[in-house]
Amino acid sequence: xxxxxxxxxxxxxxxxxxxxxxxxxxxxxxxxxxxxxxxxxxxxxxxxxxxxxxxxxxxxxxxxxxxxxxxxxxxxxxxxxxxxxxxxxxxxxxxxxxxxxxxxxxxxxxxxxxxxxxxxxxxxxxxxxxxxxxxxxxxxxxxxxxxxxxx
Length: 151
What we know:
By secondary structure, this protein is mainly alpha-helical. The protein is built from four helices and three strands; from the N terminus they run E-H-E-E-H-H-H. The protein has a three-stranded mixed beta sheet. Strand 2 and strand 3 form a beta hairpin. The chain starts with about 30 loop residues before the first strand and ends with a helix.
């Protein structure tokens, strides 16, 4: 069995100044700090049973993320899925909600209509409100993905 192939060689490219583009600034630096908030601390963070998460500015221009670990949807999922370890469900909730919210924040800040963080915190407030809806679906979606993969 014979195989034929052709190799084409292009002219050598002369090294020049590399083009380095400035990364877009989100107004925040570093890895976000994720803090679990339990019912006893709801008042400090303005949470209720339906709250999902909340962003706020931390020290040194970092991002703090407060996740409601006593969310009613999380508690219902723990009650309903008795065969699943509650710690696993809490993990799914915490990090699933966090990743979805970070995606929303990234999109909101990189969209053409919005290139800089909102000075009034409206982007944080919008995502916090939307996290109430995300909290309803995050565990069922992850559970289904997990179940399909383990079959």
